[in-house]
Each structure stands twice: as structure tokens, then as C-alpha cells.
Amino acid sequence: MTLRLRAGYVGRAAIEVRHSRFLAVVERTGDEAAARAVVAAARRAHPDARHHCSAFVLAGDGAQPYERSSDDGEPSGTAGTPMLDALRAAQLVDVTAVVTRWFGGVKLGTGGLARAYGRVVAEALTGAPRVRRLTHQAFTLAAGHADAGRWHAELSAFGADVEATYEADGVLLRVVHADSLALAGHVAAVTQGAGVLVPVGSVQVELPVP
Q1: Which burial class, exposed, middle or buried, applies to 113 when counting CB atoms under 10 A from its CB (0-12, 13-18, 19+)?
Q2: CATH at 187
Q3: pLDDT digits over 135-156, tens only?
Q4: What is the pTM of this model?
């Protein structure tokens, strides 16, 4: 199962290891340009820091996510890779992590660096609100002006997402529900068989993950 951070959420965490300070920022990003913008923002915000290491995972068009990471001057494999591992462990896609490090004068060694970079990203994700993206069938339902309000209310109470477009000769309801068969049965009951659901393509919806 792949998850995403809730839109607009920014996770942050800071740790100190033997006088070196690590600041992590984790954001939802939909493409590589957005991911690189998060890295650039960290560089602008903290120009005094020695390293701005990064990792991102994007859903992409294929079966496998598109992943990239950067050690930004740290020894190879000690920053970007453990950061990427933390994102993978959280089962996240469309996400970017940046860790800014201020060197404290004491070398941490490759193992110490890897643990610190992975840990601070994991802490930035602790408690972060996640969503699951699902694809549902969308329908239109033509209603007369006299019936539209009641149909809208009863479909909404059933758990459907309903949008109304008012026209001169009636109202066109756009209806989306997770269970198309159950929706069809409910529409038949609500409209006493008069309503006809017309498929109009699919839509993606995002549901919170407990």
C-alpha cells in the first residue's frame, strides 16, 4: 500500500548528535520540480549550514516509484540513502525530505551519520497525517428542480460526494461513491426508479488513514 502525506502538511524534526545539529523537513511533492524546490528553499533558509541532504519518492507513471537522493558532500551513502529508507519504511510516495546539518566539530563516522540522517527523517514523519488515494467511478444524475434538493440530501446522507449544476430545464447531479453497485440501488430507491446514473469517467479521491 502506498500512502501520501495530507496535502499542505509539512513535517519537521531536529536532533543533536555530538554537537552536530540535524534539521529535517518533509513535504508532499507531486513532481521532481516541486521536490527540488523544497531543497532550494532549505538552502535559502539556512545558508550557514554545511550540508542540505535530500531524498524524494515520486509515484511516477510506471509500476515502480521514481526515487532520488543526495548526500550533498557527506560520505557516499551516509545521508541520502538512509533518508530514502525512512521514506520507504513509511510507505510514502510523492514526498520529499531535506535534512540540513550544522557540523559540530566532532566526526560521527559513517555509521553515526547514517543513523542520524535516518532517525531525524523518521521523527519528522512521526504522527504525520497520511491519506490513501483511491479511484472511483463518477456518474451524472438528471433531476427535476422539484426533486433535486431531496435527491441531493439523501445521496449525501448515503455517503456519496454530490455536486449540483443548475440548468434551465433541471439539475444535473454529479455523484461519486466508493461502491457503485450500492449507489445504483440507493438511487433506484430514492428516485423510485426514475433516476438514471450515467457514467462520466473516474475520479481520484483521498481518504485519511487512521
Answers
A1: buried
A2: 3.30.70.240
A3: 899 999 999 999 999 999 999 9
A4: 0.80
